[in-house]
Amino acid sequence: MTLPTILMTALSSLTSNKLRAGLTLLGVVIGVAAVISLMAIGKGVQQTITERIQSLGTNVLFVRPGQSSVGGVSRAQGTAATLTLEDAYALADPLFAPSVAMVAPELSSTAQVVAGRKNTNTRIYGVTPEYEEVRNFGVSSGRFISMGHLDNYSQVAVLGSEVAETLFGFRDPVGQTVRINGRQFDVIGVLESKGGGNRFFSLDDQVLVPITTAYHRLSSQRTASGGINVQNVNVSVRDVESIDAAIREVSTVLRLRHRITRDDDFSISSQQETIETLQETTNTFVVFLGAIAGISLLVGGIGIMNIMLVSVTERTREIGIRKAMGAKRRDILLQFVAEATLLSLGGGIMGVLLGFVLSWLLNGRALLGQPTQTVFSPEIAVLALVVSAAIGLFFGIYPAMRAARLHPIEALRYE
To answer: Does 59 reside within a domain?
Structure first.
C-alpha cells in the first residue's frame, strides 16, 4: 500500500466513529494547550523579572557588608556593620577607582508612614542624590533629594508611586506632609512607577529620604569608630567592559581602608550576576510548569493507546478479511500506526492553536490580583507538536503490532 492510501484508509476509519475519535483527540488537545500556555506564563514571569532588574541599571555593582557572627553562630551576608558612608565616598575617588562612575550608598529600615487618616507600612531608604541616576529612579512629579537636604538633615521624602496612591489617592502628594515614626516629613517628589511587583516586594512600595536624615532622625546605626553604617553601596560602572576592573578597584580600596590581610569583610556582586541567578531559578520554575502540563499530554497518549486497543478488538474480522485478500502484516501495522499518529498530530495542531489563543487572552490579565505577562514561544509550540506526534506513535505501536500479528483464520472466526 502506498502512503496516501494508508493515510486515506486511516482517516476513513477514524471518521467512522467521530465521537470516540473526538474525545480521544480532546485529551491531546488539552495536554498540548496546557504545556504551551503554562510555559508562556512561566516565560512571561521570567521576562518580567529580568526587565524589572534591568530597569534599575545594568552597569551596577552592589557592595554589601559580610556576614556577622553572634555567639559562634554565623548570620547571613549583609548583617555585619563593616561598611560606612565614608567608605562609599572613598569609592568615588577617580584616582583609586577610575572605572567607577558614581556611588550611591543606602540605609534602609521599615516604618509606618501616616498621612491624615491613612497609613501604610513600607521600606524607608536613606539615599544620596546620586541614587536617582545610579538606580535609574526617575521622578514623575516634584524633585529628588539634593545635597542641601543631606547637609541640613532635612526631613523631606520622595514617595514611591504605590505609597503615594495608598496615602493620597489621585491627589498630588507634592507639598503635602507625612509622618514617619512620628516625625513630620515634607513630600518633595513622587517616583515614576516601575510597574508590577507583588504583595511581598514592589519597587513602587518605598519611601526615599536623605541618608543623613535616615541616620540622625530614624535610626542610629553607628560604628565603633563613630562612622555611619550603610547597608548597601550601589556602584555605577562607566561601561560593561569595565565591570571586572571596577570590582578589583573597589576591593582594593575597601581592603586598604579596612586594613584587611585575610578574608574580606564585604561582598561584591554585579547586576548581571543577579539576572543570571534569577534566570537559572526561573528556568527551573518554567521547566517544572512544563513537566506538570506534560503529565496531561501523557494521559492523552494513554487514551490513544486505549482507544486503539478497543479499535483492534472491534475490527478483528476486518483485519482477517484484509489479510485473506492479500494485505501484508506491514500494511496492517502501518494503518493502525497512521491512525494513532493522525489522532495525536491532529490533537497537537489544535492544541497549539488553543495554547496560542490562551496565551494571548491571558497576556495582561489580572491573576491573583496581579497583571500576568505571557510570552508565546514558537520553539515550545514546535516541541509540543513533535512530542504529541511521538507520543501517538509510541502508544500506537503496541495496538498496531497486536493487530498485525492476528492470524487471518482466527480473525475471521472472531465474533
So the answer is: no
